[in-house]
Each structure stands twice: as C-alpha cells, then as structure tokens.
UniProtKB/TrEMBL annotation:
Pfam families (alphabetical): AA_permease_2 (PF13520)
Compartments reported by the entry: Membrane
Organism: Thamnidium elegans
Top-level taxonomic group: Eukaryota
Identification of the protein by name: Cationic amino acid transporter
Residue spans crossing the bilayer: 77-99, 105-125, 213-233, 240-263, 283-306, 327-351, 380-403, 434-452, 458-480, 492-514, 520-539
C-alpha cells in the first residue's frame, strides 16, 4: 500500500470515528456522563451541561409514565389546530392587510403563507410521530440540540402564547361589544370605561399614557373563564373547543355562500394595486412583504405557527399520538388555508378593498357593501352571525393558546427548569392546574390593561426561530437516529426529503430578516431575561444536574434492562427497544 492510499484510509477512518462519536451521543447514553467528571473544571462542566440532550427513549418513558389523561382523538386534534389558526387573522387582519398593503391580492399573500407553513407542518409531523411528548419545539430541541437551546425555545414559546392570547383577549372584547350593538340595532352600547384597556400606546414617537378607561373587563373575564375550563379537564376543554370551532366554521361557510352570488367584478380590478413608492404599500413586491414586514400582518402567520405548535403540545393527551398528531397538524393546515382563501376572495369581491381601511370588522363591511348595492336584500341577520362567529373564533384561539402555554410550562417544570409546582397534576381533573392558573391569570391581567397595538408589537418573530429548530431537529435525527420508527415521514426518500426542512430553515431565516427591527429587539430583550433566569435557576435545578441517575431510573419501568459495563465501569444504556406508544398496531395502545 503506497503512502497516498494509507493517508486516504487514515482520513476516512477519522471521519468514521467522528461520525460514530456524534451518533453515539444520541444512540448510547451514559447517565454517569451527566455528572462532573474526575479532574474536570467547573467551567468546563457547566459548559458541557449546556449541550446535554434528553434521549428520545427517556422521552418515551416520560410519555408512558404521564398522569395526563389521554382523551383527544384525531378529529379533536384537527379542531385544536383550526381553533388556533382561524381567529383574528380571518376576522380582523385580513381586511387590514387588503386595505393597507395588498388589495384583493391578499389572497396571494395567504398562499405564500400557506407554502411556508406547509414546510413547517411536514417537519412538525415527522417529529411528533417520533416524539409524542408535551412541550413541542422545546422537547424536540432538548432531544436534538441540548438543554440551553431547549430553554431558549421554551422561553420564546411562553412569550408567543402569552402575548398572542392577551392580544386575542383584547380583540374578543371589541367583538363582544360589537355583537350587542349589531344585535340591538345600535340601542345597546357598552361603556368604554369597562371595555377598553387602561393604558394607551403610541408607537411613533413611543409614548405610553392612561387611556381614561378603568379595565378591559370582558377581555379579563373571558380569559379567566377559559382558564377555568382548561383546569376542569382536557376532555371538557376539547368538547368546548369543538363546539365553538364548529360554530365558527358554520358562520364562515354561511358568509362565503351567502355573498358568493353578489360579488362585483370591478372590486378585483386592479388585482394588485400599483405601488405607492413605499415597498410597504401595494405592488408586486408587497405581495411577499405585506405578510411578514408589518407587525400586525405578522400576527396572522404567527397564529398559523401556534396552531401547529398547539397540536403537538397536547401530545400526552392524544389517544394515539403517533398516528393522530400528523393528522391534526396537516388536516388543520389544509382546512384553514382553503377557508382563508375563500373568505378573502368573497370579502374583497363584495366590497372594494379601500372600504376596509381602519375597520376592525371587515366581514361586516363586506355585508353592508352588498346591502348598499342591492337595496332589496336585507343581510342584517348575516351581520349578527358574523359577530357570533368572530366571538366563537377568538374564543377558540384563546383556548388553544392557553392550552399550549400551560403545557410548555408543564414540560419545562418536569425537567426542573421551572419550579416543580408547575408540574403538579390535579388529582381529580388530571390537568397541570397550577401552571394553567398562573399563565391564565398573567395573560388576563395583560389583556385588561394593555392595548392591542402594544401587545401586537410585543409579538416577536420567535416562532420562526422555533420553526428553524424543528426543521434542524428533523435533519439531525435522520442521520443520528435512523433506527427510530417514524409513523409519518416527509415524502421524498432518505435524502431528497431533506430538501423540505432545508427550505423551511431558509424561509424561517428570510422571514426573520424582513421583520420589523423593533420586533427583533423585543425578542432579544425577552430572551435576555430568560437567559438570566436559566443561569440563575434553571441550569442549577435541572434534573439532569441535580440527580441524573435518578432521572434515568424513572423510566426503568418502561425502558429495557439490557445494560453493559464499559472499560471505565460506567453503566451504558443500549437503546434498541420500542415503547408502548410505538406499537405497530395503534389500536393496542394503552389509554
């Protein structure tokens, strides 16, 4: 063998050794390695702690040991997704986007959004079929990129759910007032002193002042009511969500079919209004930027993201998580996209897009425009139905946001990163009641005193970051754990299918790049607060720091006992087993 061939073989062997060492981090886990090694400095130990993963098999063990009640079917999970996706976006922001930014071409904006969301839905579905555990992107990051990244994503999701729910709470209050006004023919008008937030916010120049109102009582009360429903039980919450989502869908369909014969073709011309000289307003380029550039429109897409995330946060409460989670994720995406496109088409055809400017109730504007054109038609009943549909739609969004937030709290507390009180399960209702009450109360107070424009600007691009992590997690596990059964796998074969998560990562980065600078700064401020809490509490109370051996032993009832002794005498766990949640026949799953 010549010298060149020998060097080549050495290089290849080094590559194989490196790859084996990387995959061993995921396929063989030594509980002792989570302790400080002999001769290891404290700084090196704490640095190593940041990247320690939570093995997939241990997550399976957690799923089997969970005290949460498995009550959600595939049908209910689809409704969970729809409940989070269809709400403020379709009833409020679609009209603002058409009036201020895209004109009738707002439908194309939603098509772009749907394509971006589809990449995410595929990655979420594959991850959920492998790791059917509460926590969603937080849990996936813990299994693939380590504790610090997991904390960052979990803390980010807390902000998204909390601010998202508070924003919807303020919007719900507005529709609540509108319903009484429309239903009574203008005779009943609730006082703004008790239906508007305490604080007034002006973005430019930044100024916060008292609005003159006392509290947004309807917003506060509806959030506390939803919190109570979530505490009572997941079965009751799912039933309530199914009812309000059904009402919402029926109202949307009635609106579409009732006005489909009264569209004015002139309203679609021009389909893409001429650009005003500012790339924020109209023109072909704005078809892309109208969704992602301005804060309010960004909320529409973030609602879709939270829709996916909320489905996966309920994994421990799904009857057959591996099969049903992908159905819930992809089913809710398809149904919601079709309804968004149909609703926006009818709305912009019934009324000229300029009429929606400044109106928080674009559907009502469309109905009134038809009544002006056809004086012999009385659609007042449809206006009342739209108000009812909007109230139900926003209620379901509130329910799912608070559900998702409490389950992220629960997952993080189980790992010791948050106080253990948030991991406690109610002995009767089998729900994380303390986590639910805590996040619900904080969210209700925010909705009572903060205005919708301030809350909207607090909403960050953090969900895009979570998306990026989920896409990356799919790629990592494809190479490090190809042995894990995947009930759902991104189509395209072993390698070609990776194009989807790679494109999804690129889209996430691109959308973050075009977001408002102030939105990104708010994300960094929130993250900085989270990192302070992590290094002050989380990293020191993490169960992988305080008692890693005990943490692994928790799953021994469901994990195999085939361990080996390596040369150093450490216990090395060889994971080659399939837990009960991964049975070939989903019908045999223990509920």
């Amino acid at each position: 063998m010549d010298e060149k061939t020998e060097k080549t073989n050495v290089v290849e062997k080094q590559k194989e050794t490196f790859f084996e060492s990387v995959t061993a981090r995921y396929t063989k886990v030594d509980p002792q390695s989570y302790l400080q090694r002999e001769g290891e400095t404290k700084n090196r130990y704490w640095l190593r702690r940041l990247g320690q993963i939570k093995p997939v098999e241990l997550l399976w063990g957690d799923a089997e040991n969970s005290e949460l009640k498995r009550a959600l079917s595939a049908f209910q999970l689809v409704f969970v997704g729809i409940g989070a996706i269809i709400g403020t976006g379709i009833f409020v922001l679609s009209g603002l986007a058409a009036a201020n930014n895209a004109g009738p071409a707002v439908t194309l904006s939603f098509v772009i959004a749907a394509i971006a969301a589809a990449f995410a839905a595929l990655s979420y579905s594959e991850m959920a079929s492998m790791i059917p555990v509460a926590g969603s992107a937080y849990t996936y990051a813990y299994a693939t990129m380590g504790e610090f990244v997991a904390w960052t994503i979990g803390w980010d999701l807390i902000l998204e759910y909390m601010v998202g729910a508070a924003t919807v709470g303020v919007g719900w209050s507005g529709y609540f007032v509108k319903f009484f006004e429309v239903a009574s023919g203008g005779k009943i008008k609730l006082s703004s002193d008790w239906t508007e937030p305490t604080i007034k916010w002006v973005e430019v120049p930044a100024e916060m002042s008292l609005s003159g109102a006392y509290l947004n009582v309807p917003g506060f009360c509806i959030i506390m009511l939803i919190t109570l429903i979530l505490v009572i039980g997941i079965r009751q919450s799912a039933m309530f969500n199914t009812i309000v989502v059904t009402i919402k869908l029926v109202v949307i369909l009635i609106f579409i079919f009732a006005l489909s014969g009264f569209l004015d073709p002139a309203n679609f011309s021009p389909y893409i209004p001429e650009n005003t000289g500012d790339w924020h307003f109209f023109g072909v380029i704005y078809i892309y930027t109208c969704i992602y550039k301005r804060t309010y429109i960004l909320i529409v897409i973030i609602n879709s993201y939270i829709g996916f995330d909320a489905v996966t946060t309920a994994a421990l409460e799904a009857k057959r998580p591996q099969r049903d989670l992908p159905i819930g994720i992809l089913g809710s995406l398809v149904i919601s996209t079709v309804l968004y496109l149909a609703f926006c088409t009818i709305m912009t055809g019934a009324a000229n897009y300029t009429e929606f400017k400044g109106s928080p109730v674009p559907a009502s504007v469309a109905v009134e425009a038809v009544m002006r054109r056809y004086t012999d038609k009385n659609f007042a009943w449809l206006n009342i139905l739209v108000a009812i549909g909007a109230v139900c739609g926003l209620t379901s969004v509130l329910l799912i946001n608070l559900l998702g937030q409490s389950r992220v709290f629960y997952a993080m507390a189980q790992d010791g990163l948050l106080p253990p009180m948030f991991a406690k399960i109610h002995p009767r209702f089998k729900t994380p009641h303390l986590a639910t009450i805590t996040v619900g109360t904080i969210t209700a107070i925010m909705a009572a005193i903060l205005p919708v424009d301030f809350l909207g600007n607090m909403t960050s691009v953090g969900t895009l970051l979570a998306f990026f992590i989920v896409h990356l997690g799919v790629i990592v596990l494809r190479f490090t754990r190809p042995d894990i059964e995947r009930r759902f796998k991104i189509p395209g074969g072993k390698y070609f299918s990776l194009i989807f998560p790679i494109l999804g990562m690129c889209i996430s980065v691109a959308l973050i790049a075009v977001a408002e600078v102030t939105t990104i700064w708010r994300l960094f401020v929130w993250m900085f607060i989270g990192w302070i809490l992590y290094f002050a509490y989380g990293i020191r109370h993490s169960r992988f720091h305080r008692d890693p051996i005990g943490r692994f032993k928790e799953g021994e009832r469901h994990l195999p006992a085939n361990t080996e002794q390596d040369d150093t005498g450490y216990q090395v766990q060889e994971y080659d087993y399939v837990p009960e949640t991964h049975q070939a026949d989903p019908n045999t799953h223990r509920i």
